[in-house]
Design goal:
The protein is built from 15 helices and 13 strands. The chain has 382 residues and is an alpha/beta fold. Strands 1-4-8-7-6-5-9-10-11 form a nine-stranded mixed beta sheet, with helices on both faces. Strand 12 and strand 13 form a beta hairpin. The radius of gyration is 31 Å and the shape is elongated.
Length: 382
């Protein structure tokens, strides 16, 4: 057995006897390595209270058997040192703590062909399980734009925004990765079994929890840090004031990733959490996939066009020409001198400008004086 395989078995053991995001155990594994930390658990189980529970489970752990059964089901256990290990996860060592969870996972269970080391440009799209039609539409369209631009989409496979994000990426033919709070062999939520089976066959499902693990509430909080760490930025489409998506955004901020929020109606409870992120300066406002590409792209790349109305005939006129045009009556003709007084310009200059405006059809000259041309009269705002 190679050193890497010994490390894998040791880390699989630790994974089986500890909770995802367990700060003490993950930190010691990162510092000591898997085999050495296992020695500590076996030889000094009472060294710290946090280690006692993990040490008590060692006798029932069967890492080789779990790894073998997982491999037969197309599930691999990726650890630091593997070519597939995403370096971005190592940033969790310096990202602090949220809800007593944190640090670098000892490994990740992966089901599906998409490799984790191909997520360098990935974007997380997360949000409310109780999303609105607006939220689903925005999430789906945004994921499709990101996917079409070559960026994998990562989410949590939950109802609502997560599902819409995965669906949008699949529609665009782009890779998408679901990060679960349970084992990758479980369909959670059950209603998404078909989608999860599709992701397992063509994309990837990822979890820090071992195969067979149940989706306990605390595991969702640990899961969120993985979503944030695997991606370059996190977009929150809809989130109420108490939402797991806000926890993902907090992890992204602590990891110094770009956090973005999609505004919703000011009266929508589903968007209150997003609005607070934007108001507090914790998230950049985005309204579509192009905004996300611009924020995450290299300087000068993926620049979106500034929204503006198309130029009208008057927009091409000089300021002084528009000043004269505004002084010309709609229907009752006025003399050049009268137009000059209203415009506040000299009569000679106004005469010249009126001639140019007449040539372009903006005004017309009648025996009694000047009035607006037929094309300009209907556009006057009253």
């Amino acid at each position: 057995m190679t050193d890497l395989e010994r490390e894998r078995v040791a880390r699989a053991t630790i994974n089986l006897v500890t909770e995802p995001g367990d700060l003490r155990c993950l930190g010691l594994t990162r510092e000591l390595g898997g085999p050495r930390f296992l020695e500590v658990l076996r030889e000094q189980p009472d060294l710290r209270p946090e280690l006692t529970a993990a040490a008590g489970r060692l006798s029932s752990a069967q890492p080789e058997r779990v790894l073998e059964r997982a491999a037969r089901r197309g599930i691999r256990f990726v650890i630091p040192g593997d070519d597939e290990w995403p370096a971005s996860l190592d940033d969790l060592a310096r990202a602090g703590v949220l809800h007593a969870r944190g640090d670098v996972p000892v490994g990740l269970w992966v089901r599906g062909p998409h490799r984790l080391d191909r997520l360098e440009t990935a974007v997380a799209v997360v949000g409310s399980r109780s999303s609105t039609q607006y939220g689903d539409q925005v999430a789906g369209e945004m994921a499709a734009v990101l996917g079409a631009a070559g960026r994998p989409v990562v989410s949590g496979a939950a109802y609502g925004v997560d599902y819409a994000a995965h669906r949008g990426a699949v529609t665009a033919g782009a890779p998408t990765v679901a990060v679960l709070a349970c084992g990758v062999d479980r369909a959670y939520p059950l209603g998404h079994r078909q989608m999860l089976d599709h992701l397992a066959e063509h994309h990837a499902i990822v979890s820090e929890a071992p195969p067979g693990a149940a989706p306990f509430r605390i595991r969702f909080l640990a899961r969120n840090r993985i979503i944030a760490a695997l991606t370059r930025g996190t977009v929150v489409v809809e989130a109420a004031v108490r939402s797991g998506a806000l926890n993902t955004a907090s992890w992204a901020n602590q990891l110094h990733r770009t956090v973005m929020g999609v505004p919703g109606p000011v009266s929508s409870a589903a968007s209150e959490g997003v609005h607070e992120l934007i108001r507090a300066g914790a998230a950049a406002l985005v309204t579509g996939g192009q905004d996300v590409l611009e924020l995450l792209g290299a300087s000068g790349q993926d620049l979106g066009e500034i929204a503006r109305a198309p130029d009208g005939p008057r927009d091409r006129l000089s300021v002084r020409a528009r000043q004269v045009l505004d002084a010309v009556p709609v229907s009752s003709p006025a003399s050049t001198a009268s137009v000059a007084v209203v415009a506040g310009l000299g009569a000679v200059e106004v005469e010249q400008l009126l001639g140019g405006l007449a040539a372009d059809g903006h005004v017309e000259r009648l025996p009694a004086g000047w009035r607006l041309g037929g094309g300009d009269r209907p556009t006057i705002e009253r």
